[in-house]
Write a structure and sequence with these properties.
Distance between the termini: 21 Å
Radius of gyration: 13 Å
Strand order of the largest sheet: 1-2
Number of strands: 2
Strand content: under 5%
Shape: globular
Oligomer: single chain
Order of helices and strands: EEHH
Number of helices: 2
Structural class: mainly alpha
Helix content: 25-40%
Length: 87
């Protein structure tokens, strides 16, 4: 299982991928992200594309190992945190 710390940074950067077009409120931030408390309002029932484990099973399991997919996601997470001064 992918370990997400729910920092919300990925929710604030969805405009860079067409996978999230239906979730972008127009400024690159997800329509379900609550900026005030910095958490997804629908996390327990979030869309498929917001669930790393489900995205892997649906789109990537034939292309790479789960460990490779997680590593890619952790790298992106780390880069987002570095760009926003978080660790």
């Amino acid at each position: 299982m992918f370990l997400c710390d729910q920092c919300g940074l990925c929710c604030m950067q969805i405009g860079s991928s067409s996978l999230y077009d239906g979730l972008d409120r127009g400024d690159g931030i997800c329509i379900f992200f609550d900026e005030e408390v910095r958490i997804c309002k629908v996390y327990d029932n979030r869309p498929l594309q917001c669930n790393v484990d489900k995205v892997y099973e649906t789109y990537f399991k034939e292309k790479m190992s789960q460990e490779e997919f997680y590593e890619l996601n952790y790298k992106i997470c780390k880069k987002l945190k570095e760009n926003y001064g978080r660790r």
